[in-house]
Amino acid sequence: MSLHRARIAIVGGGLSGLHAAYLLEQKGVRDYVVLEARQTLGGRVVSHPDPRPVTGANAVSSFDLGPSWFWPEYQPQLDALVRELQVGRYEQFEQGQMLMEHRADRPVVAMPGYASSPASVRLVGGMGALINALHCRVDPNRIFMGHTAKSLHSVREHIRVICERAEEETVTWTVEHVLLAVPPRLVASRLAFFPELPEKLSASWSATETWMAPHAKYFAVFETPFWRDQGLSGQGRSRVGPMVEIHDASVPGGSAALFGFIGVPAWARRNLSDAQLKALCRAQLVRMYGERANEPVLELVKDWALEPFTATLADLSSTGQHASAPPATPENGPWRGLITGIASEWSPEFGGYLAGAVDAAARGVQAQQPFPLR
Predict the structure, then answer these.
(1) Mean per-residue pLDDT for 118-139?
(2) Whole-model pTM over 0.90
(3) What phi, psi does 281 have (nearest 5°)?
(4) Any alpha helices (H) in 149-273, and if so which ranges?
(5) Under a CB-based contact definition with an 8 Å cutoff, are residues 46 and 302 in contact?
(6) In what helix (H) or strand (E) does residue 289 lie, and over which residues does it extend?
(7) Residue 37 burial (CB < 10 Å; 0-12/13-18/19+)?
(8) Which ranges of 15-100 does DSSP label H, i.e. alpha helix?
(9) Could you tell me which residues are beta bridge partners of residue 164?
(10) CA 292 to chain centre
């Protein structure tokens, strides 16, 4: 067992965890650690590199297997962060008609599409570009990947954070405060507290649905956005499935792509392989967009219900809706003033969204004021 000390431990290296680290450094607080269970940063933000060379202003191109866009006018705090980090953007393509598939025995219907208002935007390089930009602006020596937090122990106004590394090595951090940058349900089900959390608080965290946890996404990458030649926006809705909602995910100067949210419930998807899901989704694209959809240069499937550091068994039957924010801190008991939830689901206004991760992290860091410099 190895023992270490820090002032603040941030459990989770997704957007909320990295944003919290960034805010702490801006306030002169550098005695912190980010403990991430995965071997990569980003959490639910995952961007797959474009397999084709990219031209023009977009020097980097990726496809988002997690969150894909945000709304600058509606989410100004996230917009300000994107601008501050100088991450490029472009509007989601929505020009043209939308396709609707009502029944398997009826033809697909073209109809006017839905334009986002306010406009939604994507980031150059995918949402992973935001993670990379934050990572570049914090101390890399304060980030520890492959560290799975297993338990928290309250000991004389300090907290011992017990982590597991590869080969079951145990690492212990003694800290003054813990910022929980993982979803409430995951905290309640995977992280042991000694003494236990207040029963009411633990129950509320367990009942808070994790955004993305029951969802799966399919991507088909093509040589050209052929649907645009037909006056189509790429948007699609289907009551047949397996995808219930489809969008254009093409990258300016890069590859063309369509992606869809798979409507098959998480518990039922467990009986399907990635190859089976891809074949079903590809067949649906052919029904809706024609034979040219049968020749993707790349197919991707991301099933978030299979991610142990995102989903729990409870998420297999989850509705997948954005949840109302539970309390972020205990109001009483031995954990009062020692832990704060800062993952997206703890945001009162944007729970589950990227903007929620930024908001909740800012609230959690602000709650630690004042920060005497050390």
Answers:
(1) 95
(2) yes
(3) -70, -40
(4) 184-190, 199-207, 226-229, 266-269
(5) yes
(6) helix 274-289
(7) buried
(8) 15-26, 76-84
(9) 148, 170
(10) 31
CATH 3.90.660.10 spans which residues of the chain?
A: 89-123+214-306
When the candidates are 1.20.120.530, 3.50.50.60, 2.40.110.10, 3.20.110.10, the CATH number that belongs to 1-48+125-208+322-374 is: 3.50.50.60
Mean pLDDT of 82-92: 96
The H or E element spanning position 111 is: strand 109-112
Q: CA triplet 31, 35, 38: central angle to 5 degrees?
A: 155
- CB-based contacts of 91: which residues, under 8 Å, 6+ apart? 119, 120, 121, 122
Residue with the two structure tokens 């805010």: 23
Which 8-state DSSP code applies to residue 153? E
CATH 3.50.50.60 range(s) for the chain read 1-48+125-208+322-374
| Closest to 318 measured CA to CA, from 209, 206, 208, 203 | 209
Q: Taking Cα atoms as reference points, which of 76, 78, 182, 73 lies closest to residue 123?
A: 78
Of the pLDDT bands very low, low, confident and very high (cuts 50, 70, 90), residue 58 is low
pLDDT band, very low/low/confident/very high, at 51 (cuts 50, 70, 90): confident
Shortest CA distance to 135 belongs to which of 59, 50, 43?
43
CA distance 279 to 273: 10
Query: Do the Cβ atoms of 348 and 19 come closer than 8 Å?
Result: no
- Amino acid at site 348: P
Q: What is the fold, at CATH topology level, of the domain defined by 89-123+214-306?
A: Polyamine Oxidase; Chain A, domain 2 (3.90.660)
Q: pLDDT tens for residues 146-184?
A: 999 999 999 988 999 999 997 778 999 999 999 999 999
Q: Which of 260, 261, 249 is nearest to 221 (CA)?
A: 249
The Cα angle at residue 159 between residues 156 and 164, in degrees rounded to 5: 140
To 5 degrees, how large is the angle CA 124–CA 49–CA 128?
Answer: 50
